[in-house]
Amino acid sequence: MRLIIMGPPGAGKGTQARFIAEHFKIPAISTGDIFRANVSEGTELGLEAKRYMDAGEYVPDEVTNLMVRNRIDEPDAVSGFLLDGYPRTLAQVEELDGMIRFTGHRLDAVVCLTVDQDEIVDRLLQRAQVEGRADDTEDVVRRRQEVYLEQTAPLIEVYKKRGIVHEIDGLGEVADVTQRIFSALDVIPES
Ligand code: AMP
Q1: 0.85 cut: is pTM over it?
Q2: Which domains, ranges and CATH numbers included, belong to the chain?
Q3: Residue tagged active-site, from 13, 36, 50, 180
Q4: Residue 174 near residue 15 (C-beta atoms within 8 A)
Q5: What angle do CA 36, 11, 167 make, to 5 degrees?
Q6: How far apart are CA 182 and CA 177, in angstroms?
Q7: What b/e sequence results for 98-123 when a residue is b if at least 16 CB atoms lie within 10 Å of its CB, and e otherwise?
Q8: So what's the pLDDT on residue 190?
Q9: Of residues 81 and 131, more confidently modeled
Q10: Distance of CA 11 to CAs 99, 122, 130, 145, 158, Å?
């Protein structure tokens, strides 16, 4: 199973990604998490990524693509993966297509969480306080929304044309959102 979870920053992708990945026994690969780990370890990749992350901008495609390519080549991702936060640009869509085609597989589904913009900004500001995320100041939060709308929202149309998008209402209780995702993906929940 090869899946993508999409949606604006703050839509709850990371939380839902964990449940989906657990169900399908595949790794949830979050580019944001990998970048943050590199930043805290002070790697060269982290140093490069930090400048962009702190400004709410995207890390350049070449850097991000290579990182994802290396990650999905790891043994735990051979039978499938869930990507959270990638692809985010049209160039990344093409790159991912190439990576998946190379392995002889296909992208099975794109889960797209929809949420109200105002609700999102509130959620992100709360998260910034709770998690102490350096990249979550109000200006940066707003910039990340803009960048998402400009660069990433158009990707949904690309995947819609392929008929693999499941649009899910991301508002409400976490468990309810998970239920919506699972029923869209035809998953019978384990009790
Ligand atoms: P996230 O936690 O997914 O919101 O990612 C945090 C930050 O990491 C983003 O605001 C970007 O600066 C960077 N980032 C994560 N994924 C990507 C990507 N696919 N392309 C470019 N930059 C990314």
Answers
A1: yes
A2: 2-185 (3.40.50.300)
A3: 13
A4: yes
A5: 125
A6: 9
A7: ebbeeeeeebebbbbbebeeeebbeb
A8: 58
A9: 81
A10: 27, 11, 16, 11, 20
Q: Which H/E stretch holds residue 156?
A: helix 153-161
68 Cα to the center of ligand 1, angstroms: 12
- Exposure string of 168-177, with b = 16+ CB inside 10 Å and e = fewer, is bebeeeeeeb
Say whether 144 is catalytic: yes
Within 57-119, strands assigned E span 81-84, 109-114
Banded pLDDT at 36 (limits 50, 70, 90)? very high
* Cα 33 to averaged position of ligand 1 atoms, centre (Å): 8
- Annotation says 88 is catalytic: yes
- The answer to whether the CB of 149 falls within 8 A of the CB of 114 is no
Question: Residues with Cβ < 8 Å from 74, sequence gap 6 or more?
Answer: none
Task: Tell the residue number behind the tokens 């869209």, with chain if given.
Answer: 184
Q: What is the pLDDT of residue 129?
A: 75
User: By CB neighbour count within 10 A (0-12 exposed, 13-18 middle, 19+ buried), where does 18 fall?
Assistant: middle
